[in-house]
Write a structure and sequence with these properties.
The complex is a heterodimer of chains A (about 220) and B (about 190). Chain A contains seven helices and nine strands; from the N terminus they run ααααβαααββββββββ. Chain A has about 220 residues and is an alpha+beta fold. The longest helix of chain B has 23 residues, at about 20-45. Residues about 105-110 of chain B have low confidence and may be disordered.
Chain lengths: ~220, ~190
């Protein structure tokens, strides 16, 4: 009985699962149409509970804080112009190293637009491409500016991907992104010096100050 | 500038947010910021933390609005789910809360003189009435799970009930609540 994943749908809709249970249920949810349907209805009821909470007025400055922060982030994530051209290439490739090479290769040939963030990094002398396995890689400019290009599925609801620059055993948060169909191109918000490693973890929405899960993508050390 | 976003549906506003339209984000905040803050304050019982939760949730809306298109949900459900998730994450980090005694219906933290849309006020009355009509043990499971941010296992332990009982109270309670709200015609008016 405790192991029946269907029985977790209501606690999940109420956010009343611990981390491990939640992860397990989300895996189940991905495969179970019945639970997804049930969840949609139960979430509506849970959201009604939100409306049922006692009223309170947020301080007026909160609105401005949110809008300021939103505007300042707008430049961080750049939608890719031609995601479709990349996806079949990735899908058709099975060998990990080959996939990375092809992703990187396709970059190099598709960079014909001067406002492309990848090109702006790669066009500089001394820029390099660092593999991140089958997911893609990171372009690092001579000045340490870097852009990630990763083929990852959209992050689960209420989760986000977070990039990290790891150096000397210390992880520095380097930007959030959500993932998308095709390839996500994300500017790294921190400098990526030689000897460091770029990593990506899944974090709760809004990101974390330190990784709370193991990176599922790690670059080679940047030379 | 000059667009009247007031006539846009919540879902249309979210599509605008997905294309980085900050005025659409502002409009969504004007619609749901109050409910979001009331919820966060109810869960966290701390004004600074509640503001953090609301801010992080609306930034998550900003960053991930394109994800919403794939969700089978109303925009307000999606937004309030993000707010609740964030508030629960924060409250679970507050170790002090773990030792607090259970209380089903705590005093409202904020004043009652809150300006808000009449529709929201009406919806709140309907929801509170529906909650009152649930069997007490189901209401308790929903309130302690949703508002107090307890996990099902914590709840089982605190109430001295088997986990299976807690799960089924949550399920029956939520399903019943949904039916009561539908009877009250709220399903449609909750946009």
């Amino acid at each position: 009985m405790p192991d029946d994943p269907h029985s977790l749908v209501a606690p999940y809709a109420l956010d009343a699962l611990d981390e491990r249970e939640e992860k397990e249920f989300e895996q189940h949810l991905a495969l179970c149409e019945r639970c997804r349907e049930e969840l949609a209805g139960l979430r509506e009821a849970a959201a009604a509970l939100a409306v049922g909470a006692p009223p309170a007025a947020p301080p007026p400055e909160l609105r401005q804080r949110i809008l300021d922060q939103a505007r300042s982030e707008r430049e961080n994530v750049v939608p890719l112009r031609r995601p479709r051209r990349w996806t079949p290439v990735l899908a058709a490739t099975t060998a990990v190293a080959a996939a990375a090479a092809i992703v990187l290769g396709v970059w190099a040939t598709s960079l014909n637009n001067s406002s492309d963030p990848l090109e702006s990094v790669l066009s500089k002398p001394g820029a390099r491409l660092v593999s991140m396995g089958s997911y893609g890689g990171v372009a690092v400019g001579p000045d340490g500016r870097a852009v990630l290009a990763l083929a990852v599925r959209p992050a689960p609801m209420s989760k986000t991907y977070e990039a990290w620059v790891i150096r000397g055993g210390k992880a520095t948060p380097a930007g959030l992104f959500q993932g998308r169909a095709g390839t996500s191109v994300v500017k790294i918000s921190k400098s990526v010096p030689a000897g460091s490693v770029v990593a990506v973890t899944v974090e709760p929405s809004g990101g974390s100050a330190q990784p709370t899960s193991k990176p599922f993508v790690l670059s080679r050390p940047v030379s | 500038m000059g667009r009247d976003l007031a006539h846009f549906t919540d879902e249309a506003l979210l599509s605008l947010v997905a294309s980085s339209d900050d005025q659409a984000l502002a409009e969504l905040y004007d619609r749901f910021g109050g409910v979001a803050y009331g919820l966060a304050l109810r869960v966290l019982r701390d004004e600074a933390l509640a503001q953090d939760a609301v801010q992080e949730a609306f930034l998550a809306v900003w960053r991930t609005a394109d994800r919403f298109l794939a969700e089978r949900a109303k925009a307000c459900t999606w937004i309030l789910t993000l707010v609740h998730r964030r508030a629960v994450d924060l409250v679970r980090r507050q170790e002090r809360r773990r030792g607090e005694p259970l209380e089903s219906v705590p005093e409202p933290v904020a004043s009652e003189q809150v300006e808000e849309q009449a529709t929201i006020r009406f919806q709140r009355q309907v929801v509170q009435e529906a909650l009152r009509r649930l069997p007490p043990e189901q209401r308790e499971a929903l309130e302690l799970g949703y508002y107090a941010g307890l996990t099902q296992s914590e709840l089982a332990e605190r109430l001295g009930q088997p986990l299976g009982t807690i799960k089924s109270r949550m399920f029956t309670g939520l399903t019943r609540l949904k039916d009561l709200l539908a009877q009250a015609g709220l399903e449609e008016s909750l946009r």
